[in-house]
Amino acid sequence: MLDVARIREDFPILASEVNERPLVYFDNSATSQKPQVVIDALVEFYSRKNSNIHRGVHHLSEVASGEYEASRTKVSQYINASRPEEIVFTNSTTGSINLLADSLSRSYLREGDEIIVTEAEHHSNLVPWQMACERSKAKIRMLPMEDDGSLSVERLKGMIGERTRLLTVSHVSNVLGIVNPVEEIGALASANDVMYVVDAAQSIPHLPIDVNRIGCDFLAFSGHKVLAESGIGVLYGRHDRLLDLPPSQGGGGMVNKVTMERTTYADPPLRFEAGTPNISGALSLAVALDYMSDIGLRDIIEHEEMLTAHMREGLERFEGLQLYGTADPRVPLFSFNIDGIHHYDLGLVLDKMGVAVRTGTHCAEPLMERYGVKGSVRASLAFYNTIEEIDVFFESLEKAVVLLG
Amino acid sequence: MLDVARIREDFPILASEVNERPLVYFDNSATSQKPQVVIDALVEFYSRKNSNIHRGVHHLSEVASGEYEASRTKVSQYINASRPEEIVFTNSTTGSINLLADSLSRSYLREGDEIIVTEAEHHSNLVPWQMACERSKAKIRMLPMEDDGSLSVERLKGMIGERTRLLTVSHVSNVLGIVNPVEEIGALASANDVMYVVDAAQSIPHLPIDVNRIGCDFLAFSGHKVLAESGIGVLYGRHDRLLDLPPSQGGGGMVNKVTMERTTYADPPLRFEAGTPNISGALSLAVALDYMSDIGLRDIIEHEEMLTAHMREGLERFEGLQLYGTADPRVPLFSFNIDGIHHYDLGLVLDKMGVAVRTGTHCAEPLMERYGVKGSVRASLAFYNTIEEIDVFFESLEKAVVLLG
Amino acid sequence: MKDDIVSMQKDIVASFRGLDDWLDRYDLLVSSGRELPPFPDEERNDENAISGCQSNVWIKMGIENGRMTISADSDAAITKGILALLIKVLADRTPQEVAESDLFFIDETGLGTNLSPSRSDGLRIIIKTIRDFARSN
Amino acid sequence: MKDDIVSMQKDIVASFRGLDDWLDRYDLLVSSGRELPPFPDEERNDENAISGCQSNVWIKMGIENGRMTISADSDAAITKGILALLIKVLADRTPQEVAESDLFFIDETGLGTNLSPSRSDGLRIIIKTIRDFARSN
Ligand SMILES: Cc1ncc(COP(=O)(O)O)c(C=O)c1O
Ligand SMILES: Cc1ncc(COP(=O)(O)O)c(C=O)c1O
Q: Which of B276, B278, B280 to probe ligand 2 with, by most ligand atoms within 8 A of CB?
């Protein structure tokens, strides 16, 4: 069992007060907080190891290069990739998906090809595909979600046709919190020879990710959502797929040979890492994933299931509350509205009670449209949140409703 | 006058030992070291302020958003931009130039248009333009450098023709260290109605940058080369130019309205900042630029001129040493070879004496080709380096030559 | 006659400062919003809409006898409260007074910090809209 | 008979460890390189070139009487010295011995840390080339 009190001590910001009340940070899907080990790793790097990488022969450059590559290895192991070269460091999930979509738009996608995306995607896993379609004249087809927020593999099966070349789905939607059946979808994609891309931005802080079991060709996530720095992201690509992928950006470090007339490119992953990468970001991600492993995903999941159940119960009891996405299994991430009250008002009042939630469209406008709302309140929890915080959240929500109702 | 001893205390890494000798860090053009204030700012951010930005209504989100935008303002003031909206945060110089080149390749550049780049460009200011040319069928023309490493504005004038639509030049070459006449070139570009892009990656740590005086349409640099974190870069774009620029990447935060069918984009700079940006990176850049201003560019330049003169003298006296780029004015950055000795051997031996230099092609293969060499040694200094360190460098170089010669 | 812009704001600041608790202050704000005269449905159009806020905001302005008329609405109660305060302070003034006004009550009540996220900055846009109107009239 | 792979490496480690100063160690390394038999010009071709190093490296391997022959060259003196040590340890062994060898001398002399930058990793590529040849023969 998770010793949450102990774990909270690792996160300096969790002891903060906001508006003279203890901070209740329920905005973890937007970004996670950072444990002291991650902060210490940054200090250590910039105080003792900082150097650029890329063919430096001096000591510091060796150290920095070594740690950067060790971070790549660590990430590859964490998601069970077959080799470190399958890990491309980017600046974020958004950066990963843009790299991929842009590159595919000039190599893999052809006029008339179809890309299937779901109705619940974050803009970062939708707009890059729209752009890729503009560039390649491929078309987007939308897989609608079921009324309970789940995805139907049956319905998906019916959509896959001759021209379907790519299928992308978020492992966990950042609005619904529902865990999609990515393995089942992977089997379907592979049976139909469809390239399969998974957005793991919201699953990486909650669930074990195994790219082999998922059976995806590509998978993307951000460091900042899983305890690491902002500005670092990952694109996993199956080795043979990466080999086929042309670079999206050019610059230092990604070339083989450059002349004014012609440039040849390095092998993956370097081919996709133009310029000086976010070295400290990569290091911080390795430390963050180690921290997750040290605590243990099993204990994390157990604790989060408890949080999920307690939240769910409270939300269901709450009068006039509409929860978006009711299917199971899920992570402790909940979007809702309360009849007759604007989500923005709720967010502001909760904040004054120390409770940080997110309000708005959550970068998922098609999904908001489906529900016919302009936005919602989202409370998203992490393993360092507690049952007591949930109780404060509900008390505050009740007060807000009295005030605003 | 600069109190270098005092300043060195601000940089914890400068007190390191390497191979049991005091570190002499002469690899500053690859990346700069970080002062304690920058490191402290990271700790402070992640311990007390961390949150995602983008429409959060809660306290931490307000704080983080406020600091992120204040950093934008700070950067705009540092380079004398007309307004904060002219500053786009990217992940690096390379990221900035790729964003720009990609975006122009789908909006501004047409088949048969000509782009002028110089022979001395870093791959990051060459390969993205090659890619843009592939996409738009525009053509690259190369401005050769003069034998002393300088650029001839006369020669450039002769190259500009009917079809010249874009001209890009590095303010300071990362191999030659020579300061190019960017203002004069700017006047020429503007007289001929040619879009003008400046790569300021190597000038930002040494010189005051004034985008208005330079007269450029766009300018790019990296935070990590000017005391800030890795993973943060800047693309300055004149407001009217940015307004005309389509986005290069899609995702959260850069849209106006998204539906499955059609997406409209936000105004600059947000249009170009898809996804969660490197928030701590942007903050660290503001702190770094403040630190530079507090010391004062005047004192920095004065000290660096002394370093430059001392280096220059020693290099000229050194037997069998070929210096690449002899023109003035310059920053304290020198590339050279020693007859009959491989640059790689020199780099390795210097490292064992505690002296960190870079060896290789410095991501500038066309320039190496021009000199007919496979690589060189580069010693690049910062304002925190000293005359004594230069003396250690030359002593070590002499020992290396005895060993290897 | 109506109090001048400064004293009006001072009154507002005093009444908010008099309340210890943020819940009470928001209560006051929401009540102010409720007192706004109803905003006609037909005026909830694109022309009067302010974009860039997290809630829907409509503002209709005019000039009568050399003085500004302002009516406004929002679907969010707190935004509506702020609109009510702005109307209290700025309506029925000459355009020049409005254009030159220093709106210190927003910061001094503490309402500003929470109502002007630096990016989506709804309140700043609202104030700019009112000032722009005043300046061009 | 030639010493076995392990004792040969132990000797090398001992002679490097015997030197206090890095300059002396590099001196020894460079001298080892100088003792390599000249590498024929016509063998400096693409086929024998190893790419991925900061210096040019050529390696030519063969099998004679069931044992490996290795000749090599580099335009960098230190790389050449390392090649000389590798040849000392690995040449004239059976392919199986080479394939199975544990090259601890690289780390234990401290030469490795500086000669295997994690990215351009010349030394690792060189060793892999030799081992791959051994394995396929
Ligand atoms: C002149 C020049 N341009 C561009 C770059 C690329 O900078 P970054 O690697 O930070 O993207 C460099 C860095 O070495 C440089 O020196
Ligand atoms: C499901 C999903 N995909 C993608 C993203 C984009 O992540 P980032 O902003 O780190 O690029 C997010 C972040 O909110 C997300 O929740």
A: B276
